[in-house]
Amino acid sequence: MYFNRDELAKYGMIATLAIAVVIPFLTDSMFILNLLVLMLIFIIFASSWNLLAYSGQGSLGHAAFFGIGAYASTLIAAQSGITPFVTIFIGAAVAAFIGILIGLTCVRLKEWFLAMVTFGFAIIVQTLTVSVLAPVTGGWDGLSSPRLLSPSIPGYQLIEYYAILVITIASIAAIWYIMKSRIGLAFLAIRENELEARAAGLDPVRYRLLAFAFSAYIAGVAGALEIHHIGYLTPELYGVDNSFWPITYVILGGLGTLAGPVVGTVVLTVIWEGLKATGLTFGRYVIVGVILILAIIFLPRGLVSLPEQVQEWLKRRRRKEPLPEPVGD
Amino acid sequence: MDTLGIFLQIIFWGLYAGCIYILLATGLNLIFGVMKIVNFAHGEFLMIGAYITATVFFLTGINPYLIILLSMLALIGIGAVIERFCFRPILGTGKLNEIFLSIGLIYIFQNGAAMIWGDSWQSVKSPYDGITVPVGSLSVPLDYILIMLFTAVILCGLYLFLKKTTIGMQMRATSQNRKGAMLVGINVERIDIISFGLGCALAAAGGTLWVVSGQVFNPYMGSIPAVKAFAIIILGGLGSIPGAIIGGLLMGLAENGAAVLLGGIWKDAISFVILIVALVVRPTGLFGEKGE
Fold first, then answer.
1. In this complex, which of A130, A291, A296 lies closest to B97 when CB atoms are compared?
2. Is the Cβ–Cβ distance between B132 and A93 less than 8 Å?
């Protein structure tokens, strides 16, 4: 049982794509289609968080960008009448702009400090939304948001699914391109050793801001998509839950990898919905928490490293060698 | 009420809110000092402490101020288990991992508590409810004064424990130099467990005081105070216990000042505004040396 990592990734990708294209034809259930759409949106969101983490910056307040994208896109679409398909990208640009602003305050901060500031930032944005900006944003009641496609079009759910699938693939491709480009290399260099990166002529501040801008943009796209899909938005969007989900997905799937957010989101969504069928409410969160902790301790590189881990384990068993202590990070 | 009255009221509210923040922040600081980890789920221990107090009070009806001992003891146990099975395996594998692990703990504790006790808001009536003590032109509830006294006693106890006992000295040694402490024969893993347990016990004391003051609580009450406590120790300098005390008082004051002046909605956000401004000006915290 030997497999090449690249080949596995290639076949995995083709298989995932094929399944994603075919799956709407295998089911008539609108519930499942809706679930798939939300899953795609969260794949985009988790990937955006992952991109920021790839540059060494762990955000605890990504819901802020998700929400800003959603609010901006909704307001623009509602005021101007432009189709949401366009305003999504304008709204995301607003999120990216705010992302740069928050990035500016964070560039000198690391780890907990950064985590704290981003967490607090989401709370500040929520407070602003329901207080000062309430005349525009509707306060706690929220707003109704133009739908992506009018429900009067026959088969609109199917069209919406494919449209969002295309945007998902484009986002992941964009992230892949960023990761492989010089910018992605710079992110890595700065994450691993800032001093050496500086010595090599990289400007950490510039790249950190870039990471914030890219990540906030993609998160904004995800937020706007979700809102135009559902049709209304409330300040709950900025909630802690929305900040923690992408983290949970990425950690389970594999931090810093392209496939990690996808695998994590799909696996956890399936588990989540499966648990729903058993009638658990709070218990579901407890189980997710346990899964997250077990993954951090026993599978620090996430589910995407599982094939390698199994291979390693089999090899060692054949040679009757003891397993080494798991090494994280 | 006259301006002075409002001012005095802000100060008293702030001092009282500050007490709970101080307990949380000191606990976090103790854990950070020894283990160099930050537990974002620290507020969940506050919540568990609150629920233990409320449950014992509802069952037995004894004075809730006495239950503080029980909730602290219980949380030492829970903290020790968490340290042993969650934080120790990932010690030294990167700071982001600690943050992610805390998120898992938050999920487990909040929703575990919701499964046991339900997720509605609850409150407890203190036996001294309605009794006030005149201070100047203001009548301050006796509970507030008791809470400040309890906090002061606990902090003095902690101070004596750290300064006078062998374990306390070992804890300080470990926090100053972990390798050195190992070399002189201190069992640092035991010290880790003890400090984590103590930190949790301080949070539990905060939980009990939260409950006896008549404030409402639910399983999700812990996250915001915990993050604020974390903001406090960043402001006060990581690992500095006097910094935590001053920071806690200032945070309590600022928050209640903002709630009165800007409206209650700003109560939570203001602490982060302060934090962000402070970090932009001084990335290492107000009193901190280098925070790593």
1. A296
2. no
**A296 chain-B contacts, CB cut-off 8 A:** 90, 97, 100-101, 104
Which residues in chain A are contacts of B280 at CB distance < 8 A? Answer: 105
Query: Is the separation of the CB atoms in A107 and A52 below 8 Å?
Result: no
In a domain, residue B76? The reply is yes
User: Among B94, B263, B271, whose Cβ lies nearest the Cβ of A329?
Assistant: B94
* Assembly ipTM: 0.84
> Smallest Cβ distance to B108: which of A126, A131, A290?
A290
Query: Residue B106 has which token pair?
Result: 């938050």
**What are the beta bridge partners of residue B132?**
B141
Amino acid identity, position A122: A
pLDDT given for residue B132 in this prediction: 79
Q: Which residues of B touch A111 (CB under 8 A)?
A: 95-96, 99, 292
Question: Residue B275: which of A116, A284, A288 has the nearest Cβ?
Answer: A116
CB distance A286–B283 less than 8 Å?
A: no
Task: For A177-196, write each residue's pLDDT tens digit.
Answer: 998 898 889 988 888 888 88
> Is there a contact between A109 and B292 if contact means CB atoms under 8 Å apart?
no
Within a domain: A271: yes
CB atoms within 10 A of CB B130: 9
Domain count, chain B: 1
A122 located within any domain = yes
Q: How many angstroms separate the CA of residue A81 from the nearest CA in chain B?
A: 33
How high is the mean pLDDT of chain B?
Answer: 84
Does A226 map to a domain? yes
B180 part of a folded domain: yes
pLDDT tens digits along A228-263: 888 888 888 888 888 889 999 999 998 888 888 999
User: In chain A, how many domains are there?
Assistant: 1
pLDDT category, A327, cuts 50, 70, 90?
low
The CB-side HSE value for B44 (13 A sphere, CA atoms) comes to: 19
Please report which residue ranges of chain B form alpha helices under DSSP H. Answer: 3-35, 42-60, 67-82, 88-90, 95-117, 142-164, 166-176, 178-183, 188-212, 223-236, 241-262, 266-281
A198 neighbors A204 (Cβ within 8 angstroms): yes
* Interior angle at CA B107, CA B249 and CA B71, nearest 5: 55
- Return the structure tokens found at A255: 């931090």
Range of the domain at B143: 14-217
Cross-strand pairs, B140? B133
- Cα B73 to Cα A198: distance, rounded to the nearest angstrom: 50
A137 touches A68 (CB < 8 A): no
Chain A positions with Cβ closer than 8 Å to B:
53, 58, 60, 105, 108-109, 111-113, 115-117, 119-121, 123-124, 126-128, 130-131, 240, 244, 247-248, 251, 255, 282-286, 288-293, 296-297, 300, 327-329
**Which H or E run includes A34?**
helix A30-54
Q: Which of B107, B270, B273 to mutate to test the interface with A (most CBs of A within 10 A)?
A: B107
Q: Do A123 and B272 touch (CB under 8 A)?
A: yes
Residue B58 lies in a domain: yes
Does B265 fall in a domain? Answer: no
User: What domain range is A269 assigned to?
Assistant: 5-318
